[in-house]
Amino acid sequence: MSDAPATKARTAMASITFTPSGETIEVPLGTSLLDAVILCELDVPAPCAGQGRCGRCRVRVRAGDVERRSNAGLVSAEILDGWAVACQTYVTGSIEVEVPERRRETVRPHGHAIAEPESLPLTCDWRQDPAVRTFELDIEPPSLADNTSDFDRLRRALAQQHGIEEVRAELPMLRRLGKDLRMANWKVSVTLEMRDWVYDAYLPPRLIRIYPGAFRHASMGVAVDLGTTSVVAYLLDFATGRVVDSASAYNKQIACGDDVISRIIYAKRKRGLERLQHLAVETINDLLDELQKRNGIELYEIHEVTVAGNTTMTHLLLGLDPQYLRAEPYIPTISASPVLEAGELGLRANILAHVHVMPSVGSYVGGDITAGVISSGMFATDKLTLFIDIGTNGEMVLGTKDWLLSCACSAGPAFEGGGVGDGMRASPGAIEDVFIADDTLEPTFRTVDDAPAVGICGSGLIDLLGELFVTGLVDKSGHLDRSAPTDRVRVHDGVPEYVVCWAGEGGADHDIALTESDITGLIRAKAAIYAGFEVLCRSVGVDLADVEEILIGGAFGQYINIEKAIRIGLLPDQPVERFKFLGNTSAQGAYAALLCVNIRHDVLDVAAKMTYLELSADNSFMDEYTSALFLPHTDLSGFPSVLAALQKRGNGSDAPRATT
Ligand code: FES
């Protein structure tokens, strides 16, 4: 037998030094540069989550050798200069890698208004029903004759002075209780969470904070809309029930993928899920910091938080593995989240503040939709109502107060400006509405913030396609009329396109155009959503024309031009009065749940009542989708207003385009 100590086979390692941060890390040979930057928590975008498709995860190898498996999007000069696609480049020895500084985009600065409490369809009186309340107490000091414990003494005072018979406190509060009471000379204010949202179990009020003397502090709540793209936080004053401020930012997880599928893929990487959870928390924390500074409050004065997000976002916020959401049969780990404390989640609010996450219904119908159904009021109406939230996914709910049926269809990122050559998010300079003159075929457009045009956002894409169709520049199959008497329709680098803004007219260094393949992508996206409407209706034996109200929620929805969305067959051809824009319904639902504790039960009821229709298992979806792959649809009889508009402008679906 050998005397040598047992040794394990050692993995060969190499060091990577990152500049300009100066950080050095040891990694096994064969590690991708993207995994290495994740381990160091450096900021490198990975919109396709490391699949080698987007070419955006660029870093520069300044010293040492690497193995490149793909150079997606890089030109020879860049490769010679050391640029590499991080997710496709692997460590073969010690190296030095430069991580370029990232330019931060700003979020569309408007559209954060939220409904006042009176206009929310609440089932309770918000003025009397927030969960968090504060009471002033004058506590009898202890003596040899009265040796009751500090906590029982506080309970006795609460019962005698405010009629609150029961109270409970968790260990962190109890640890500081003795000192807090004595330092305040037994005159304190206590902030309590009056009722807990633990399903229907009754729990006594919970002690969140003790303040010395009379209450001179703020008692605030924060409602968070945790979107895949952007995150909005509303600061609510519990004393008045009013929103006093809001802040928004891009979800920092964008660096790990543009859409939920990319993020789920990213979560599979080593420490990927950990990073995604950290970025979600960090995004919310930055907003809390901003609200705190702007409003002169302390973070410990944030006593409660509600969060509404889609199922993937909820899983990632809680650090739950999202892999099973994506694989058949598409099962979430949880539908209703346990009530969490801000401290355990890492949120910079009062560490004992409860965080209430809106419940999901299925893998692609999440808390943003249950919150939306609550804030839209459809859960309490007799009218047959269709609620829709259009984004990367088209999520929709059909029903009345007695039943709710939901589904989600993948529209892809087209309506958020993704996958379209000159598409962009709705930030300054994005073309957001377009009109094309019948006679000259010249466009006029408006941009976000009236900034020089740099691209086209979702609402602009819908407008532009609607205009191209109704002027006959695009036919019902999505083909451009190459014989049109305008130089704006051209074939550029072999690709047919319509130029909406010439280089030099706006802020882009190239012509901004919509290509035929962009149009194909948009038609597919709108077809998926319209097919979802049809399948929902047919499942319960009603016709789209029977729907009495169509409620459009979601941050993007408020910018859609109804008439033009009908023109391309994205929305059903119903009288305009039936449509209502509700704004950010996800945020409004989170806000309602903060204002009114009973709403939290209503949200759970809605989630339990809602049936989720898995479209991938529905045979009729593909048929409906195929029928909708035309402008506006194969069956024009369902689109009388579009037919009338085409005829009025001399562009009946098969008629030649009118020109002067
Ligand atoms: S190519 Fe690397 S993340 Fe997309």
Over all CA atoms, what is the radius of gyration?
28 Å
In angstroms, what separates the terminal alpha carbons? 99 Å
- State the name of the first-level CATH class of the largest domain: Alpha Beta
> Bound small molecules, which ones?
FE2/S2 (inorganic) cluster
Stretches where pLDDT is under 50 for at least 5 consecutive residues are 1-7, 103-112, 653-660
Query: From the coordinates shown, what is the CATH architecture of the largest domain?
Result: 2-Layer Sandwich
Number of strands: 28
Number of helices, where a helix is a run of at least 4 consecutive DSSP H or I residues: 17
Helix/strand/pairing category: alpha/beta
Number of domain units: 5
**Overall pLDDT metric:** 88
Largest sheet: 6 strands, mixed
Q: Strand order, biggest sheet?
A: 13-12-11-14-16-15
CATH topology of the largest domain: Nucleotidyltransferase, domain 5
Overall morphology: globular
Strand content: 15-25%
Query: Helix fraction?
Result: 25-40%
- Provide the CATH superfamily of the largest domain: ATPase, nucleotide binding domain
